[in-house]
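All the exercises in this workshop are built on plain-text protein records. The record below serves as our worked example for the rest of this section.
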Amino acid sequence: MSEIDNILKIKQTGLKLAKGNLLVATPLLYDFYFGKSVIILTEHSEEGSVGLILNKKANKQVKELVPSFNDIDLPLFLGGPVNQDQLFFIHNNSFVEETFSIGNGLFWGGNLQQVIDFINDGIISKDNIKFFLGYSGWSSMQLQNEINTNSWVITKPDNIYNILQNSDNSLWKSIVASLGKEYKKWFVFPTNPIDN
């Protein structure tokens, strides 16, 4: 174990990469998108992985992109640096047509017009859906290589409502805390150690 691994207590949970699992950024990531991020994997195969950043808010509301929402304030999140002109969403509503299960009671995508109608009619609560601009993507073995170099820790979501409703760095903190007390040093690790 390297000295920095020892300081940060980076150890893998033993979980494999799989859709529905979370990627928790270690304090070693200083990227605008990925620093202190939590990503849910919506796809994973030998060809690569796709995920959405759960805790990076955009400076827009969803209704700015989808005017047919009836004055409902839904925050918009930065899903990642790929295809930032496209809207994506996750939710916990299995009855939405054309949706894909990602496990743990969560679903990805679906019929957008149906979702708009359900939200406008109060069938889907704004606490049960999360919208994103763009996504995060990795080619074959790229994500595993990042895990091997201590950029991410894999975990399972313990509370889908926390994932759908939490919208800031408190999500990263709560998930890091759930990894165990040996991870508490992550909270005091400098945002950029070079500046120290």
The chain has five helices and ten strands. Helices lie at 3-8, 112-120, 142-148, 160-165, 169-178. Residues 3-185 form a domain with the VC0467-like fold (CATH 3.40.1740.10).
